[in-house]
Design a protein that fits this description.
heterodimer, A: about 475 residues, alpha/beta, Amidase signature (AS) enzymes, eleven-stranded mixed β-sheet, globular, B: about 90 residues, mainly alpha, Histone, subunit A, two-stranded antiparallel ribbon, 3 helices, about 35% helix
């Protein structure tokens, strides 16, 4: 059921906000044990929120979000509700404030069902590095969900919320959405405030949306976008109206297909399904153009150097003193910090911090960090060139479909290389949306992405929606 | 060249304690990760000018006094608090 349909049911009083919330909570209780998509379920708060929402509806003051039950990734702060980043470091952390995106949804009457599982500190593409256990794919529980917003994607795919807030630093909304057969939107950098999103890589992080359809992602974005004086990088260029173009004719859209995204390393089944989607758009009358992003070969390395350098700085705040895990070991101040970080962080987080300090330290800074930032500029230029002749760019979301748990997440280099098709979007600060365009021989969803011009989410949502209207999506059965 | 000496140096910068076994395992991981990162060194930046600051800052807010959060709320997440202060091991 779409968010618009849920809205109608609530407004027509075919279901009350409390009944709707209770239905989701019951389903979470019955099925989340199979997929582990939630770290914290806020049952009591959710019922109270739903009662308030129903009162608002009864008084005829209901809006687009009144009574809509959503989940929130556990790296987005929620006042009075644990926000763990799926880390032992923040196992007991209760934020004293709401993230701006959460506050906007709550003020508009949305019901927060709970906090979703993820890769620790959003560093990963499998959602298996969580301190609270890995997330399992609702299409096949022996497989990963992708990540880092694996809990968000799984919670939507399994029907355990109406929509979900996630975060995307290098593909963390789009890739799990692809693996779990749902739709994931990463907005333009600056479109949604990062205030209250626990920082991983500040120049790349962006709060995004996972939902059942492109239209639904636009629906949620309408509620969370906008300038925020608490985030110095938030923008006034985001204007809303993200579902306005849904249903519009897209046959005049020019679609660029970059050849580098279909070269070595992509699974044949993924390649075939994505190119079939290209043909489908061509049959609609869209102009298909071969384009090129030559610097893609540098993208993974540049992304990991920039994001890890920023992570090394951002995560230096976790010292075991003001908040977070505190070790019982250590005679002096320095030892206390080192032991707290040793015991509080998982291996992947430690690797990123170490890599970040490598990139920034004397002797390596020029060759690694500086070159990575030059590559960032080059990638932005190449995207700008492509958008001179195209309106959207169509690519695969990931080189493979969801793999078996334990198959590759212990090999960091293999994991990093799997981010190849998503990281350039964050590097360039662009919006992109991933949707399902096929299924592999094992029945696992295949994702394709549509990348748009900065602040032109409307177009990619509309082009994506047109495809979804013609594509028969298979529901996950748990 | 990644070796245990470099790993120990990075661990010091990162303020993370490693046992000998952990240090050896991290050195092995870092070796393969840095080999992947070496790709950026091949990028030819001699032909064009490149800005290093990629993020624009928009409409910075005025520097004005505002109430902050109550002390109890701020200290409620710390493991060791006394007289509204964070307790740390003796440093002098």
């Amino acid at each position: 059921m779409s968010l618009a349909d849920i809205r109608k049911k609530l407004d027509r009083k075919e279901i009350s906000a409390v009944e709707l919330t209770e239905e989701y909570l019951k389903k979470i209780e019955e099925t989340d044990g199979k997929i582990n998509s939630y770290i914290t379920v806020c049952a009591e708060n959710a019922i109270e929120d739903a009662k308030r929402a129903q009162k608002t509806i009864d008084e005829g003051r209901g809006g687009a979000f009144t009574g809509l039950p959503v989940s929130v990734k556990d790296n987005i702060c929620t006042d009075g509700v644990k926000t763990t980043c799926a880390s032992r470091m923040l196992e007991d952390f209760v934020p004293p404030y709401d993230a701006t995106a959460v506050a906007k949804l709550k003020d508009a009457g949305a019901v927060i069902l709970g906090k979703t599982n993820m890769d620790e500190f959003a560093m990963g593409g499998s959602s298996q590095t969580s301190y609270f256990g890995g997330v399992k794919n609702p299409y096949d529980t022996s497989r990963v969900t992708g990540g880092s917003s694996g809990g968000a994607a799984a919670s939507v795919a399994a029907g355990l919320c109406a929509a979900a807030l996630g975060s995307d630093t290098g593909g963390s909304v789009r890739q799990p959405a692809a693996f779990c057969g749902v739709t994931g939107l990463k907005p333009t950098y600056g479109a949604v405030s990062r205030w209250g999103l626990i920082a991983f890589a500040s120049s790349l992080d962006q709060i995004g949306v996972v939902a059942k359809s492109a239209e639904d992602t636009g629906y949620i974005l309408n509620g969370i976008y906008g300038f925020d004086e608490n985030d110095a990088t938030s923008s006034k260029l985001a204007k809303g109206g993200y579902t306005e173009k849904v249903g519009a004719d897209v046959s005049n859209i020019r679609i660029g297909v970059p050849k580098e995204f279909f070269a070595d390393g992509i699974d044949d089944e993924v390649k075939t399904a994505v190119l079939k989607a290209v043909d489908w758009y061509k049959s609609l009358g869209c102009e298909i153009t071969d384009v090129s992003l030559p610097s893609l070969e540098y993208a993974v390395s540049a992304y990991y150097l920039i994001s890890s350098a920023e992570a090394a700085s951002n995560l230096s705040r976790f010292d075991g003193i003001k908040y977070g895990y505190r070790s019982g070991l250590g005679e002096d101040y320095s030892d206390l910090i080192k032991n707290s970080r040793r015991e509080g962080f998982g291996n992947e987080v430690k690797r990123r911090i170490m890599l970040g300090n490598y990139a920034l330290c004397s002797g390596y800074y020029d060759a690694y960090y500086k070159n990575a930032t030059r590559i960032r500029t080059q990638i932005r230029r190449e995207y700008a060139d492509i958008f001179e002749k195209c309106d959207v760019i169509l690519t695969p979301t990931a080189p493979t479909t969801a793999y078996k748990i334990g198959e590759q997440e212990n090999d960091p280099v293999k994991m990093y290389l799997a981010d190849i098709y998503t990281v350039t979007v964050n590097i360039a600060g662009l919006p992109a949306i991933s949707t399902t365009c096929g299924y592999d021989k094992n029945g696992m969803p295949i994702g394709m992405s549509l990348i748009g011009r900065a602040f032109d989410e409307k177009t990619i949502i509309s082009v994506c929606d047109r495809f979804e209207k013609d594509f028969e999506r298979k529901e996950a059965v748990l | 060249m990644v070796n245990e000496e470099l790993t120990r140096h990075l661990a010091e910068l990162s303020k993370i304690e490693f046992t000998d076994d952990e240090c050896a395992a991290m050195t092995k991981d870092m070796e393969s990760i840095i080999a992947l990162m070496d790709k950026v060194c091949e990028f030819d930046s001699s032909k064009k000018a490149y800005a290093l600051d990629a993020v624009g800052y928009n409409d910075l807010r005025a520097d004005e006094y505002k109430d902050s959060y109550p002390t109890e709320k701020i200290t409620s997440n710390a493991k060791n608090v006394k007289n509204n202060s964070f307790v740390v091991p003796k440093v002098v």
